[in-house]
Design goal:
Layout (H helix, E strand, L loop, with lengths): L1 H22 L17 H27 L7 H20 L1 H20 L1 H10 L1 H6 L6 H29 L28 H21 L9 H20 L4 H4 L4 H16 L12 H6 L2 H6 L1 H7 L1 H4 L3 H27 L9 H4 L9 H11 L5 H25 L8 H22 L3 H23 L3 H8 L4
């Protein structure tokens, strides 16, 4: 009976894949643009060289930390901050023009890694169902408390950050209102390529995905040596296609149904269809492993983005005081609030350790949440931490500005307040929400703030006795 269902599924998937493949066969002409960015070998080489340089730099920093015995310090955080510090040092010693040239050399890789960061974050979420299945069978009340704390915790952190920033923002700085949403840009056209680079990449992966699914569906009739390559193509194309296609959804839908969610669910389903022939995670050789290996490099690249936006948050002493104080307070407050409100068994919203410990990282970017989870201990599943981070980010992107505008105590007209509050509570997803609203100044400040708040969060967890105290409160040794 089970075999007949599998056969029927393969037949249906194979038929659908064949239809897509035939209908999109003309998109074969776009395949070279997967390798040649905008048809230019020079641009492609620049992207490749700078991406590899950033990847290698993060690996070099990780090696240095291991040699020094600083294994608890996240290499991604150290690489990001040291890259930023290096650019600022060059600026001080050699002038802004020299440091800008260095930043420009890394820019193609930074932009590329940042654009595809969702792909690198998808693998932990794609296997989230396995993590949930390993949890004890908790009651509906436990899950309700967990959900309630995610919402209330975000609101408290956002309000705290907004309050601190509002009290410190310089009154002399003219407040700027959020810009109106920018009109969606139409795909660029030219004589040789009638669609934009993004659209060409999207169409190419749809075509490759159809070939991969057709190959997996026909695997019983194919030589065994072809099973794994078709399985890898199927999984890789699903991850890329679902992420790129989900970005075509309206912004209002994306704030609830984030492209990362669509990508993770689709990747999970495709890995089930492929089966054990090509596991998504395969001791460093699977598609999920390969994507996830680039996440540290993408985070390292944020150091360049911090450097490029220093005029928004660092160059003015009052602005820097506001951002630094708010990020420091927010990083400490988030850990303190979660420890008392969720980890503490005496709290009305107290939840079991396997659920409450991942919530400690709900307000930081996913890469730091993953490494922070490892610092807490094996009871803190990084996949659940990423899930809580994702949910918090979606809440913040949808409600962040509304919360600030609802209460006069917050100086919501200031981009500094909007940006710091969003970056400290809703990290990259909240920052993307500001970008979609056209609030570019606040988005730049939010990007720097999420890095600084994440840094403070990580440093607090490194302090002697902090992790031990949290684990003790949770009833763990």
């Amino acid at each position: 009976m089970a075999d007949s269902k599998v056969t029927s599924l393969r037949g249906a998937v194979g038929a659908a894949a064949a239809i897509v493949l035939i209908s999109r066969v003309r998109d074969v002409r776009h395949l070279p643009r997967l390798v040649l960015d905008k048809g230019s070998p020079t641009q492609s080489l620049q992207i490749l060289a700078s991406s590899i340089a950033i990847y290698g730099y993060e690996r070099f920093v990780a090696m240095i930390l291991r040699r020094l015995g600083l294994t608890r310090m996240p290499s991604t955080l150290a690489a990001m901050l040291s890259l930023f510090a290096a650019l600022r040092s060059v600026q001080k010693l050699q002038g802004r023009e020299t440091s800008d040239r260095l930043a420009e050399l890394l820019k193609p890789g930074v932009d590329f890694l940042g654009k595809w960061m969702g792909l690198f974050l998808a693998p932990p979420l794609a296997s989230l169902d396995a993590s949930i299945a390993r949890l004890p069978p908790y009651s509906g009340k436990v899950w309700a408390n967990t959900t309630a704390f995610l919402g209330l915790g975000w609101g408290a952190t956002h309000a705290a950050a907004g309050g601190v920033a509002s009290s410190l923002v310089s009154a002399e700085r003219a407040p700027a209102k959020a810009a109106a949403p920018a009109a969606a840009a139409k795909p660029a056209t030219n004589g040789n390529h009638e669609v934009s680079q993004d659209e060409a990449v999207r169409r190419s992966w749809v075509l490759l995905g159809a070939a991969g699914f057709l190959g997996v569906a026909c695997s019983p009739a194919l030589p065994l040596v072809l099973h794994r390559p078709f399985g890898i193509l199927c999984e890789m194309s699903t991850t890329v296609c679902s992420f790129t296609l989900a970005k075509l959804l309206p912004d209002t839908i994306q704030r609830v149904l984030h492209p990362l969610v669509v990508c993770a669910v689709s990747s999970n389903l495709s890995s089930r269809f492929v089966g054990p022939v090509a596991p998504y995670f395969d001791e460093g050789r699977g598609v999920g492993d390969r994507f996830f290996q680039w996440l540290p490099a993408a985070v390292t690249g944020l150091g360049v983005r911090m450097y490029n936006t220093t005029d928004k948050w660092l160059d003015n002493a009052d602005d820097f005081k506001c951002v630094l104080a708010t990020c420091s307070a927010s990083g400490c407050f988030s850990i303190f609030l979660t420890t008392l409100g969720a980890v503490n068994p005496m709290s009305p919203l107290g939840v079991p350790a396997p659920l409450s410990l991942p919530l400690l990282h709900r307000s930081v970017m996913s890469a730091l949440g993953i490494e922070g989870s490892q610092a807490i201990g094996p009871e803190c599943d990084p996949k659940l931490a990423v899930a809580s981070i994702l949910i918090t980010g979606c809440i913040g992107a949808s409600l962040g500005n509304s919360l600030l505008n609802a209460f006069p105590v917050f100086r919501a007209s200031s981009p500094l307040v909007r940006g710091v509050a969003m970056g400290c509570s809703a990290h990259s997803i909240g920052t993307a929400g500001l970008i979609s609203l056209g609030d570019t100044d606040a988005a730049a400040i939010s990007g720097a703030s999420m890095c600084l708040a994440g840094t403070m969060h990580t440093l607090v967890l490194q302090l002697p006795g902090v992790v031990t105290g949290i684990r003790s409160l949770a009833g763990l040794k």
